[in-house]
Amino acid sequence: MLTKWILSPRNYSTAANRFRVVEVGARDGLQAEKKFVPTKIKVELIDRLSACGFSTVETTSFVSPKWIPQLADHNDVVAQHQRFPGVAYPVLVPNSAGLKNAMATGVVDEIAVFAAASDGFSKKNVNATVEESLKKLIEVTKTALDANIRVRGYVSVVVGCPYDGAVNPEVVARVTETLLAAGCYEVSLGDTIGVGTVNTVSKMLDTVLKHVPAEKLAVHFHDTYGQALSNVLVSIEKGIRAADSSVAGLGGCPYAKGATGNLATEDLLYFLRGNGFETGVDLEKVVETAKWFNLAAGYDKWSRVGAAISAKMEKKI
Ligand SMILES: [Zn+2]
């Protein structure tokens, strides 16, 4: 059966056509890439992304270097990158020790915390059940808010878990509600292993939206099976106007085997522009940034849209 959204018109009203793209390449992207990227290049990547027009650029993670050596230079990164007016620069914080280290830098004014929607993933990732990890996150969030630090929430494995299989949408809803009640200004729902389809994402969102308003949600899709943009469209149809993506499709998730990549920012921007959404982000500039990064870091990572636009640009020269 075709779901109703497929037939609905695409003329979004002007009030509803703003869309926020949260750039996560420097953190979510680089943490999953095997090669260590020198600090100088990370800093320039963040600065170049800031110049593209994003309102949120996630920069690094204050997780122990033992777990994620790729981001061991978090102190230097946050101290060295520029801070464009109107741009938020969240850093990922796994626990109270991470928050303490982030606060010690004196420059972090936004953090992101994460909880999983399955016990299997939560235990593998933070060595605690979902309930146990939520208790700790409530404390971390409270400490951050008391220090005037804004908090964004992430929920991992909202559709499927590599250890537990299909995830119950009611659990996703409860974790999301808990994070919002703790004081997160927004919760990003992550399909960490990219298994979601229109059908499963739709059901998950319907359940979550019974408990929390669409304005408080963002979505975070991985393109493992090529379903990310379809899933963004479903989210849009349900009223969500924010999504995470990664320049050049950098990264996946180091704890999720086979999570081969974040939705690429270039692909998301092309899709949004073509469907009448305003993001404030310059797509061509993002493509140039991806091209620069590949050269500077010795990578060869391209999104489909990035490759197409880059080829077009080269022909003009
Ligand atoms: Zn991701």
TrEMBL record:
Its EC number is 4.1.3.4. The lineage of its organism: Eukaryota, Metazoa, Ecdysozoa, Nematoda, Chromadorea. Keywords: Lyase, Metal-binding. Transmembrane segments: none annotated. It comes from the Eukaryota. NCBIfam families: PRK05692.1. PANTHER family: HYDROXYMETHYLGLUTARYL-COA LYASE. It catalyses: (3S)-3-hydroxy-3-methylglutaryl-CoA = acetoacetate + acetyl-CoA. Belongs to the HMG-CoA lyase family. GO terms for molecular function: hydroxymethylglutaryl-CoA lyase activity; metal ion binding. This is hydroxymethylglutaryl-CoA lyase. One of its GO terms (biological process) is ketone body biosynthetic process. Pfam families: HMGL-like. Gene3D superfamilies: Aldolase class I. Residues 19-287 form the Pyruvate carboxyltransferase domain. InterPro entries: Aldolase_TIM, HMG_CoA_lyase_AS, HMGL, PYR_CT. The keyword Iron does not apply. Pathway: Metabolic intermediate metabolism; (S)-3-hydroxy-3-methylglutaryl-CoA degradation; acetoacetate from (S)-3-hydroxy-3-methylglutaryl-CoA: step 1/1.
